[in-house]
Amino acid sequence: MSDRNILLPVSEIPRQWYNILADIQLNPPLKPDGSPVTPEDLAPVFPMNLIEQEVSTQRWIDIPEPVLDVLRIWRPAPLYRALGLERALGTPARIFVKNEGLSPPGSHKPNTAVPQAYYNKVFGIRRMTTETGAGQWGSALAFACAQFGIECRVYMVRVSFEQKPYRKTMMAMWGGQCVPSPSSETRAGRAALARDPRTPGSLGIAISEAVEAAVTDPSGKTRYSLGSVLNHVMLHQTIIGLEAKKQFASIGLYPDVIVGCAGGGSNFAGLAFPFVLDKINGRELAIHPVEPAACPTLTRAPFVYDHGDTAGYTPLLAMHSLGHDFVPPPIHAGGLRYHGMAPTVSQLVAEGIAEPRAVTQSEAYAAGVLWARTEGTIPAPETANALAQVVKEALQAKEEGRAKVIVATFSGHGLLDLAAYEKYLAGELSDVQMSAEELRKSTEVFQNYPKPQALKSR
Amino acid sequence: MSDRNILLPVSEIPRQWYNILADIQLNPPLKPDGSPVTPEDLAPVFPMNLIEQEVSTQRWIDIPEPVLDVLRIWRPAPLYRALGLERALGTPARIFVKNEGLSPPGSHKPNTAVPQAYYNKVFGIRRMTTETGAGQWGSALAFACAQFGIECRVYMVRVSFEQKPYRKTMMAMWGGQCVPSPSSETRAGRAALARDPRTPGSLGIAISEAVEAAVTDPSGKTRYSLGSVLNHVMLHQTIIGLEAKKQFASIGLYPDVIVGCAGGGSNFAGLAFPFVLDKINGRELAIHPVEPAACPTLTRAPFVYDHGDTAGYTPLLAMHSLGHDFVPPPIHAGGLRYHGMAPTVSQLVAEGIAEPRAVTQSEAYAAGVLWARTEGTIPAPETANALAQVVKEALQAKEEGRAKVIVATFSGHGLLDLAAYEKYLAGELSDVQMSAEELRKSTEVFQNYPKPQALKSR
């Protein structure tokens, strides 16, 4: 029988990240008046060393040794062959996942939380603020801040805060503080509560709160941290795909299909970007970001300039967006409840290099349970979205009689999401679709903004 | 900087278990009348292939390939160097843990659940029953049964069932059924409820229920499974120590101190037994099973013949015991709330080969939080007991100025135990000690039973 775990020797851990900005073009971030954002504009929000990374077009960027030291707590991550799922589906496809669920917070998020905390520390920052959806990102930043001795304050989308009280405890284990958003601590939070006192919250609102809390700190020693969307976040996540490439090479394979769930885009990007260059250079390769049908950013929303947050504190970013006022239904894949998408991922979709797919909540949970029964591990609901697409691809390969190599990111485990699975098993979850009318209304907000240019990378 | 993860290549996974019965002598299990238990006596409870393994004195026993196939879902397990904890303690000691928290159910328990389910399947069994304390064992058996297509019914100690509702969901993810014990389903459960309708339950009672449910099934296709205590369980767990030995050899080290928390003894035995032979042959080596001060089986209770369960369904086993009626206080390390101890581990303690230690609940949780802040991973409360002893050993090494090599089993993660940590962080946990009078009363129960002989392995 074959080996299920393809391990990379610790000495083979990648020493550089891959920067996709060396190989694709992006529409630049703009101010609301249409003028380009300068590094100085971002200085109150992020430390300058991360801003430099955000705009760099250097293809390979060194990973600092103190960052590698922390990443080695759980990296290199296994490339896992899903032999049990293959047998259950009776497919000739070879299914692999890159297991990012083994990090202390349980997801891929610390891949960027650790370098972000490190660069903030080096820049002299004492306190970091952020938002979190499902809680994966907030946990990751709390963990990373503990490693470098930085304070951490996390604004957690209220619906997730209530569904997952233990995420708060997890952050507290690492010395982090977690408050439900919208809170009454910030102007943005109070405005959201005034609009709807019973709002479930959204990532857009929580981002506004965290940015405001950072830029209004009179000490000047607080900065904001974003767990997805931005270029430097995608950069840090490429360690996933760089490891996977080495692991595939060690067994003499190369993927035919790449799958990753996409909320803000970072977990998808982490696996896919190192393979994108090969596709740009002519390699035949299907690349699928997967999103919930209830929050169809890539599959149904237009490619526009829009704000990354609800209050409009962030620059205008060229991306697929459902509109920055969009409050997604409280589906349990909290990490995928975001109105926008990373500009890099959006650009790949705009050019047809990445082809997005949407799955329903039922498809996702069914795939999550199937995975647990065949492979044991319980996937996060976000991960289950990717697995639903993997199942579809594997069944298609069966129909075609092709031993395709399919690889997905197993973005995190679902051990803190068992309440959602409990509801699914009890038949209490239902599917939500966005109507055409809802889509039209929610995308009205950016009609008067500048429009992105059509750019071509190949 | 050094590598934190010492990975064993997948091809190096041990192909045989180590059977300590080849190297030590044990007092045999007895019937209540003092006559030896025969394999036939056990046949209604366990399948004969496992009974044969239970009494085997062959030193090396082959691991079947279908068992290895499932173990490879998460094995080999990393040997992890706790560089962050070493720095925080300022100790010259080199601290390692064998990380058993990466299995799908999150603990070392599937190391035996998988072979047990396999041997039952081969023997034609269709349904397995068991008990669980903290939920780790019940989850492990549900996971293993799903891998081999066997039904699984788990009686979970009521206090843990209530503290950790998600363990039930986890078992349901794998198709297992979980009921709180004592239940009204069995004679043993009803008797316990009659004695005290508000009892928190105990492992002893739950074992009685699970055994009764197995032996009274008229189809004859149900068997009981025990997650600790018995010889074949210890045997299956030795893969932990066998891997660790190879990993230490790969970095040119050998441990000075071995630590494992001990409830029924299996996680301790798994790491320690492969090293015990070296100690018997003259190697200087400290071996410490660690238990909660609230349930002081090895540190304060006598070495006697006693039943493994409360109703007296099991044979008399020669072991350290607090008395089979003992209901431990509801400390959160549910997996360590057991009145007895594996006869093999008890024998090592009786001979002075293993030297037990007790830690308080506060010491354990403090160590758990310290570990989380320095190394990231959140340990199970059971594991935190071992880590508390590791901290003591590392501080002693600092006092002595010795770069001792300390290794412990990281028996499981604490992601389903965050409610207990929440209480600890809020200052709501208090320490419980057993008084001398309580100990005297709880050990009256076996005064008229046969007495074990003093045996000597070296």
Give an overview in words.
2 copies of one chain form a homodimer. Chain A is of the alpha/beta class and 458 residues long. Chain A has a domain at 5-9 and 64-106 and 232-448: Rossmann fold. The first copy, chain A, has helices at 39-42, 48-55, 65-71, 83-89, 110-122, 136-148, 158-163, 165-173, 187-195, 203-215, 231-237, 239-250, 266-280, 297-300, 343-350, 361-375, 381-400, 418-425, 436-442; strands at 5-6, 16-18, 60-62, 79-81, 94-99, 127-132, 151-157, 177-181, 222-224, 257-261, 286-292, 303-307, 316-320, 357-359, 405-410. In chain A, the strands form 4 sheets. In chain A, strands 1-4-5-15-10-11-14 form a 7-stranded mixed β-sheet, sandwiched between helices. In chain A, strands 8-7-6-9 form a 4-stranded parallel β-sheet, sandwiched between helices. Chain A has a two-stranded antiparallel ribbon with strand order 2-3. The relative contact order of chain A is 0.16. The mean pLDDT of chain A is 94. The interface between A and B is large, with 46 and 46 residues.
Nutshell version of this structure?
Chain A has 458 residues and is of the alpha/beta class.
Largest inter-chain interface? Answer: A-B, 46 and 46 residues
Judged by helices, strands and strand pairing, the structural class of chain A is alpha/beta
- Distance N terminus to C terminus of chain A? 42 Å
Strand content of chain A: 15-25%
Count of helical regions of chain A:
19
What number is the mean pLDDT of chain A? 94
Strand order of the largest sheet of chain A: 1-4-5-15-10-11-14
Record field, number of beta strands of chain A: 15
Helix content of chain A: 40-55%
